[in-house]
Amino acid sequence: MFNNTSKTVVQLSIALALLASFSTTANSQGLRAAFDAQSQSGRQESRKLSAKEVYNKLLSATVWVRCSDGRHGTGWIYNKAKGLIITNHHVVRGVDTVKLFPPKFDQDNNLITDSEEYIKYTRPVIGKVIDSEIGKDLALIQVTSKLPAFTTQLKIADKSASPADRVHVVGGMPKNSQGVFDYANGHVRQVAKGRHSQPGIIWIIQTSIPTNPGNSGGAIVNDSAELVGVNSTGYGDAENVTGGTDVRELKSYLKTVMSLYPPKTADQNYKIGWRHYRSKRYNSATKYFTASLKLDPKNSACFRLRGYCYIAKRDLETARNDFDSAIKLNANDWDAYRGRAIAHRQSKNLKAAIKDISQAIRLNPTSKVAHYNRGEMNLDLRNYEQAVHDFNRSIDIDKKYDIAISERGYTYLKLGLYQHAVSDFQAAIKLRPSFNSYNNLGVAYKNLNQLDNAWNAYTMATKYNPKNYLAWQGLAEILIRKDQFNSAITYADYTLKLNTKSVRAMNVRAKAFFLTGKRNQSLQEINRAIKLAPSFVDLYETRWVILSKLGHQQDAAKDYKMLVKLDPKRFKNKTQHTVAKPVMRPTKQRSHQNQLTGTWMQQGQLNGVRYKAGINFNGNRYSYFVDWVDAGGKLARTDSTGTFKIGNHVLILTNRGGQVTKHRFGFNQNGDLTLEFPHVNISKFFVMKRVKK
Description:
46% of the residues lie in helices and 22% in strands. The protein is of the alpha+beta class. Strands 14-15-16-17-18-19-20-21 form an eight-stranded antiparallel beta barrel. Strands 7, 8, 9, 10, 11, 12 and 13 form a seven-stranded mixed sheet that branches. A six-stranded antiparallel barrel has the order 1-2-3-6-5-4, surrounded by four helices. A hairpin with a 7-residue loop joins β12 and β13. α7 runs antiparallel to α8 (282-295), α9 runs parallel beside α11 and α22 (519-532) packs antiparallel against α23. It starts with 8 loop residues before the first helix and ends with a strand.
């Protein structure tokens, strides 16, 4: 804190700013008055200041913003009298309150820059997030206690900056910074409409200031210490370019907030609730939706959105009640049916979930998210073919829907269609890289015995989420296959640090211990794993081999009986196995031409429609048919005959009329044929069993 004896420039500037602040806001009432007062303060004449003077003014108006989940950024004081602070939406997304740390000074008026001094020994100012907007990446915080006396508010510039103008920033705790509240300056490169890290096209101020994560939300000021932008993002693929939200967007944001606060009508409460809902502040959103419904109890959309808030808060019964109310008020509210379906799914009532999500699709057949949700539910029910069909419909609506593509790949994994899975995970990663897509790509490659590719995929997964044990577990399993036993133990140990109940990592350790001569440790490890997962086949397989090698034939026979019970197709006639190199399935390697020969059939019901399909391959000729009941209740058929040839996992059919169609195909671990028909409406994906060779 400043002392009374030091007559520094910064004290004078702070005193003047405080005087201006109190003179313009002394008689203000509520947020609206605070906004009006700040707008008036922006019309005062400005003068250029030295860099040191700008820094002092900017420092006195800057706070370090910290969230409970570890995220942090920067904020600046917009109106001190009312305790209003501006930061970025992405800094406070999903939280209702934050900790604010204004600058702190020692007894000699030197700025304290040690972050530990603030975190461990300083009582923060608590701030409540009262609004935020995704598109402009702006948020408004109101403090619940007084700001220190030396702090002051920033003046907002009348107009945007121009190229070549010098600008300045102070960051709370930027990445790689050696202390808090560091300063940087640069020049305006351009002010233009564009897209930053959040969705939407807005006016952006681009500067040459070298900022980093942690600067987000801080003020960008000109040589008069007037705010011309709010720091938002850097551009990873460009050098010396930093983006911020331009001052005109800030003014537009404040005008919107001014029109909503304090909320008096049902519509104002609804709109504020919607803004909090989009920002994932579900407690605040629930409060405003409830206030809106008290004033207008017939707003079905308000019930629906509050229902989604309750889902996020895991209050499923209350969520279902709200969706019931929304549907009662508006029977055509497809998204209310979707929300109730999600609540049913999370309550493990999958039958009711499928019924509701199917109704949502009937009401809105072009909703990609509804088709995706039904795919998830069919995946839960292990209706894998129907799940693929739903994900296909979702992807048809949006070819770049990466989540649906990734989930379809996961469904292919469940079906044993590993090459199909690889294609989908690669496509999803190209659209948006993620831990799940890389990790599941590793699983697919591992099952194809492409261990180097699997290693690369798992390694990328660890970069996206180094604390998720699944990828490390996969790496350990690859190492055991490559006979790198000591390294396998190291990776398995690290996996178990992340998840002490990873039985796959225990299985790796047991194998590696045995193969390096540590037989007692091996048996102890596998026994521990089986105790945790008494139905996991791979564990009994490992113990069976260990016991057999140790000569404990009686105990080994018990494990063999358990293997036959758990997986009779795989173990009924098995007599020997290797720990380090498990037998890959299927073991018979025949040409696809020979594998296809014969007649394949499938029949069943898909989303209420019964169908029957068959295809025959003989030499280089084929014939197929699909029967189903059309929308009018009549039996319909699609059929074709002609010749075929095989590409890279693609079946190329040429019918008698010369029309060529391409179909992805493969064989699952049970030897069934999987075949896609992209031009058949009833289903794009068939798992067909051989009925005749």
